[in-house]
Amino acid sequence: MSERKPPRFVPTLTTVLELPAEPAAAPQAEAPAADPAQAIAIGPQMPASETDAFALEEQLLHRVLQRVDLSLEERLSDTVSAVIQQQLDNMIPKLRDEIEAVLRELISEALARELSDNTGSTPAFGP
């Protein structure tokens, strides 16, 4: 079988990292907090203990949640803004109709009161 070259945009491994030997008597409580910048990827050929696998899973989960959190906040903000704008667009015609009806009623009442108060007097604009 002939070897295929991957496309140029596919990253390739250029450095092999050696994992330092850990003392077997190191208690778990002394382990520092998982820092994603200090994470070392292990290949499928390296056997990992259940504790190591759990720590790697926790690191991965933490990193994924950080990425999701940043995207989620932005997308939720955009989605909520769009829904609020849509609701406002639907409310504007109804609000205009209600305001118009209230203004017509107020103007009619004010005009009626003005006419009833001035029924016996001469108009202000002369004969």
UniProtKB/TrEMBL annotation:
Protein name: DUF2486 family protein
Taxonomic lineage of the native organism: Bacteria, Pseudomonadati, Pseudomonadota, Betaproteobacteria, Burkholderiales
